[in-house]
């Protein structure tokens, strides 16, 4: 089946989608994006993703090209036109096509792009053994709460992990944990789930919120606040969360075992809670 994407009002095959080279996304990385998981053809936490998209658009002073009702309709059609019960949607909005000038252009329509990709469950080996991560200084800007398409720092940081044979780079800023190159990071210490606060230094993850809600619902003690580097390095468990990776255990950090070096007991519980929660709210035929 041909992959169908959405570009500026039309659904068309991916191969036929073209953007002019003067698009400010291409020239300046001037835009924002969202990644929304879809399970059994139902978008997960859509209201929250659309709210975060609005936050990102407000952060770069770009008007939202669509109402929530319009987004929902476009997303519904996008899912229907593509293969797979489980997909992930990529939404991308730039400040449009204009003569190269750093200042905002006037009366320029934004570029709106959307595509769907297959969302595959994590490999069994990964569930059983977790992943390796490295640490690096967080050298990004101070508006990491905006889901900006200008991802060069994140790309360079992730590549450090790839070069080291690891799956993610965990970032530290001024001695405190911020997040992963493309994920949020949780730490378990003495039975308490610790999470950095949702401020300008990290992306407010939708999966992050789900994990904290599930912890509260199942009586797992949690604390949101700055997580010092020492706490990270002496953690019993470390997890990463994202829309495409859900919850994964980090079992090696900078080459050393995290806790016992295997996914820990709290991870096992949270993974089950997360899968059950997904199944309950997403796999209902009536939805
Ligand atoms: N990234 N932090 C960063 C820097 C991210 O890029 C992401 C997700 C997250 C997790 O957010 P959420 O739980 O809402 O997916 C945190 C997506 C998946 C991406 O860029 O592909």
Question: TL;DR of this structure?
Answer:
The chain is built from 8 helices and 15 strands. The chain has helices at 24-28, 46-59, 68-81, 124-129, 152-163, 206-217, 229-233, 265-282, and strands spanning 4-7, 10-13, 31-39, 42-43, 87-94, 111-118, 131-137, 168-173, 176-180, 184-189, 192-195, 222-224, 237-242, 246-253, 256-257. A hairpin with a 2-residue loop joins strand 1 (4-7) and strand 2.
CATH topology of the largest domain: D-amino Acid Aminotransferase, Chain A, domain 2
Question: For the record, what CATH class of the largest domain applies?
Answer: Alpha Beta
DSSP helix count?
8
H and E string: EEHEEHHEEHEHEEEEHEHEEEH
Q: Which percent range fits the helix content? A: 25-40%
The average pLDDT value, as a whole number, equals 97
Q: How many independent structural domains? A: 2
CATH homologous superfamily placement of the largest domain? D-amino Acid Aminotransferase, subunit A, domain 2
Radius of gyration: 19 Å
Structural class based on helices, strands and sheet pairing: alpha+beta
Cofactors and ligands: N-(5'-phosphopyridoxyl)-D-alanine
Shape field: globular
Distance between the termini: 26 Å
Number of DSSP-assigned strands: 15
User: Mind describing the biggest β-sheet?
Assistant: 9 strands, mixed
What proportion strand? 25-35%
Low-confidence stretches: none
The CATH architecture assignment of the largest domain turns out to be Alpha-Beta Barrel
Protein name: D-amino acid aminotransferase
InterPro entries: Aminotrans_IV, Aminotransferase-like, BCAT-like_C, BCAT-like_N, Class-IV_PLP-Dep_Aminotrnsfr
Family: Belongs to the class-IV pyridoxal-phosphate-dependent aminotransferase family.
Cofactor: pyridoxal 5'-phosphate
């Amino acid at each position: 089946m041909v992959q169908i994407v959405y570009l500026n009002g039309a659904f068309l095959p991916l191969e036929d989608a073209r953007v002019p080279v003067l698009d400010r996304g291409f020239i300046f990385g001037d835009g924002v994006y969202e990644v929304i998981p879809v399970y059994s053809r139902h978008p997960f936490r859509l209201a929250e993703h659309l709210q975060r998209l609005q936050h990102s658009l407000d952060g770069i002073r770009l008007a939202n090209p669509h109402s929530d009702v319009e987004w929902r309709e476009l997303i519904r059609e996008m899912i229907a036109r593509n293969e797979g019960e489980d997909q992930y949607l990529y939404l991308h909005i730039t400040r449009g096509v204009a003569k190269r000038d750093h200042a905002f252009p006037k009366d320029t329509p934004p570029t709106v792009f959307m595509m769907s990709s297959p969302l595959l469950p994590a490999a069994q080996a990964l569930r059983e053994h977790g992943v390796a991560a490295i640490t690096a200084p967080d050298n990004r800007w101070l508006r990491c709460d905006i889901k900006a398409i200008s991802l060069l720092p994140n790309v360079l940081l992730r590549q450090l992990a790839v070069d080291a044979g690891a799956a993610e780079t965990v970032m530290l800023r001024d001695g405190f944990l911020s997040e992963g190159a493309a994920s949020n990071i949780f730490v378990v210490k003495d039975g308490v789930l610790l999470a950095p606060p949702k401020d300008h230094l990290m992306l407010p993850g939708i999966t992050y919120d789900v994990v904290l809600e599930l912890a509260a619902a199942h009586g797992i003690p949690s604390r949101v606040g700055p997580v010092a580097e020492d706490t990270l390095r002496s953690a019993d468990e470390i997890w990463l969360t994202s829309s495409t990776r859900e919850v994964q255990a980090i079992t090696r950090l900078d080459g050393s075992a995290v806790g016992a070096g295997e996914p820990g007991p709290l991870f096992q519980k949270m993974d089950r809670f997360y899968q059950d929660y997904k199944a309950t709210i997403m796999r209902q035929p009536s939805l």
